[in-house]
Automatic annotation (TrEMBL), chain A:
Name of the featured protein: Acyl-CoA dehydrogenase family protein
Length: 377, 283
């Protein structure tokens, strides 16, 4: 058991740190949450800068340790997180890299890395959330295209996306897991309507996407027809396996800030609150260690992250909510002020036990796939 | 970075597990009471359990804290009785501790475990008063002085808690696969399944924390590891008891022994309030 990095990894860290120190001051101010075009421009400019400096593909790096170093250092330096590039970098890209043809990799991977093209995820439907495999959006083969009709919901970044990783039903007669296909759909195709949905935080993070006879070229199919569920499992393992890693570092920073605030405003004298902050310190330190453990394990066994991601996500999503509830205790009445960053963060933390699979679904995964308990049905 | 046990560390863990399985199985656990099995103590000594971290030049095995943590985790799994931590830490300073010839205990908080069976007591136990110990396999005395052991003792106690948490998770999962109600294994019911999943999550988080603290040796990280391992062991035993149903409430099942020992260990080393204060001060 070793927590030290190799000389080469430390050299990578040092180079990255130097580059961040030089690159960050040139960054324009972050646009407000409602300004979607502004946010897209901001996030893609940062991705372009990373590309030019040679760091763009770090999420796909053969060395997961380097990925951890990257997330740790960028987060510590206060650099932007992936933002609108989330789906492209953290799951569509890795899925295409793992399952796509040579032409597909050539077509899509570089634009993702350069920040030229934004992706969104069209998985969930009004009638298919936790039970994703019951999705009904239909795709009928017509010549060299699929004609897609149906609707998707909770599609993050749909308003600014160029591409959508879309799950469609290509065989309605087959058992529900067998008739699904994974398509890359251009978001400017005729027949697509995006209707933004307002979240409880007041922002428009996600949208409803209506699909009315949208033509998607058959060459955009990743994996075989009707084999989309298997491809989806690859996508989801990336989503759950690595997507939250960088945020743990951010939580540790927030916690330290919280302690400073409490010392200043007198709340620190409350032993119950102080002990709660102490416990959160243990929690986030351990979550970071658990990440290193999972990554080391994946590195040893090679390839796609394992179910350890579900173990992590379960604990992390609840710890994050606990962190912002504690922040509210530190702030007192100020916690009701929407102009405080922590108030907005508290609101957005409420999605972590739902998005990318609810806690109930994660517990099913842990119980059935790791512990081998019988399936419910 | 390679935060996984090495080949040697895995081999060590397997070795300790096999020794304990052969020498301290369920019958031995059941038969043991307030008396310490001296022969077993010496066998542990022969196997290097106490001398694990003593330099080879002093007749020890010359290994580090991570290896000790793996060995203590195994001891925790099987609820091995005795003042294991105190004797291990006394190796090299108290004669006979390293070889298992002497049993060494110490004042820990307001408690002393195994006072009457010990050859050497570290700390002031002159005013010791016997307690009717909640754990039938850990005799306890109360003392006035509240000396606290250092971070290494805290971490090794946490490692035992981790082993116990892993064991109760295994027990619950096994039982949930075997026991049938309503015509199917209870493990197919989501309420039971989710209890088991939460047990694993707590155990794995505690594992990462305990192993990392063993590698860094950092006292703050150690305090966090103890806190999470206490939680995993105590709540794990409670959940296991629930999964076992009525059987869990019997003396026959091992579950209560895990819970009672977990309560004792939670009080030793660094209880929650102190760990949390230390962790807060470090923020
Ligand atoms: C902020 C945010 C962003 C999102 N972004 C995207 C995106 O970009 N693309 C996309 O495709 N989706 C996205 N989602 C959707 C997300 O994946 C779903 O919301 C989630 O999987 C839950 O599905 P649902 O909302 O339909 O809830 P439901 O499945 O209806 O669940 C409702 C409740 O029932 C429980 N439940 C359901 N089934 C079971 C079961 N078998 N056992 C126990 N309990 C059960 C759930 O745990 C939950 O508590 C996003 C969601 C959020 C909140």
């Amino acid at each position: 058991m070793d927590l030290t990095c190799t000389e080469e990894e430390e050299a990578f860290r040092a180079r990255l740190r130097d580059w961040l120190t030089a690159a960050l001051p040139g960054l324009p101010p972050k646009p407000p949450p409602q300004d979607w075009p502004g946010r897209r421009a901001y996030d893609t400019a940062w991705q372009r800068a990373l590309f030019e400096a040679g760091y763009a593909d770090v999420h796909w790096d053969a060395s997961p340790t380097r990925r951890l170093i990257f997330l740790e250092e960028t987060e510590k330096a206060g650099a932007p997180y992936v933002g609108a590039n989330f789906v492209g970098l953290l799951h569509a890209g890795p899925t295409i890299a793992a399952e796509g043809t040579t032409e597909q990799r050539a077509r899509w991977l570089t634009p993702i890395l350069r920040g030229d093209e934004i992706w969104c995820q069209g998985f969930s439907e009004p009638g298919a959330g936790s039970d994703l495999a019951s999705l009904r959006t239909r795709a009928v083969r017509d010549g060299d295209s699929y004609v897609v009709t149906g609707s998707k919901i909770w599609t993050s970044h749909a308003e600014v996306a160029d591409w959508c990783e879309l799950l469609v039903r290509t065989d309605p007669e087959a058992p529900k897991h067998r008739g699904i296909t994974w398509l890359a759909m251009p978001m400017d195709a005729p027949g697509i309507t995006v209707r933004p949905l307002r979240t409880l935080a007041g922002s428009t993070e996600f949208a409803e996407v209506f699909l009315d006879e949208v033509r998607v070229p058959a060459v955009n199919r990743v994996g075989e027809e009707n084999d989309g569920w298997r491809v989806t499992m690859v996508t989801l393992s990336f989503e759950r396996g690595t997507a939250f890693v960088g945020e743990v570092v951010a939580c540790r920073r927030t916690l330290a800030e919280l302690a400073r605030t409490a010392r200043k405003n007198g709340r620190w004298d409350d032993a119950v609150l102080r002990r709660r902050l102490g416990r959160l310190n243990a929690e986030f330190t351990a979550l970071w260690r658990l990440t290193q453990w999972n990554v080391s394990e994946a590195e040893a066994t090679g390839g796609v992250p394992g179910t350890g991601g579900s173990v992590f996500k379960l604990r992390y999503s609840h710890a994050r909510q606990e962190l912002y509830d504690t922040a509210a205790e530190v702030l007192g009445p100020d916690a009701l002020d929407l102009s405080r960053e922590w108030t907005l963060d508290r609101l957005s933390s409420l999605s972590y036990t739902i998005a990318a699979g609810t806690s109930q679904i994660q517990r099913n995964i842990v119980a059935e796939r790791i512990l081998g308990l019988p399936k419910e049905r | 970075m390679h935060f996984q046990p090495t080949e040697d560390q895995r081999a060590l863990r397997t070795g300790v597990r096999e020794l304990l399985e052969a020498r301290f199985g369920r019958e031995a656990l059941r038969a043991s009471g307030a008396r310490l099995d001296r022969a077993l103590w010496r066998e542990l000594g022969d196997a290097g359990f106490f001398a694990l971290r003593l330099p080879e030049s002093q007749g020890g095995v010359g290994l580090g804290l991570p290896e000790a943590v793996l060995a203590f985790e195994e001891a925790g799994r099987v609820l091995l009785p005795g003042p294991l931590v105190a004797t291990h830490l006394a190796a090299g300073t108290v004669a006979g501790a390293a070889t298992g010839e002497s049993v060494v205990t110490r004042v820990d908080g307001g408690l002393v475990a195994w006072l009457e069976e010990a050859d050497v007591v570290l700390g002031d136990a002159a005013d010791a008063v016997p307690v009717r110990s909640v754990d039938p396999l850990t005799p306890l005395h109360r003392v006035a002085s509240v000396e606290r052991p250092g971070p290494e003792a805290v971490l090794l106690t946490a490692a035992e808690q981790l082993g116990s948490a892993a064991r109760t998770t295994e027990l619950a999962v096994r039982y949930a696969k075997e026991r049938e109600q309503f015509g199917r294994p209870i493990g197919g019911f989501q309420a039971v399944k989710h209890l088991c999943a939460q047990m694993l999550v707590r155990t794995e988080l505690a594992r990462a924390a305990v192993y990392a603290a063993a590698v860094t040796g950092d006292p703050v990280e150690t305090a966090g590891a103890k806190l999470l391992a206490d939680e995993a062991a105590v709540q794990g035993a409670r959940d296991c008891l629930q999964v076992y149903g009525g059987m869990g409430f019997t003396w026959e099942a091992d579950v209560h022994l895990h819970l009672k020992r977990a309560w004792v260990r939670a009080e030793l080393g660094q209880p929650a309030a102190q760990a949390e204060e230390l962790l807060a001060a470090a923020l």
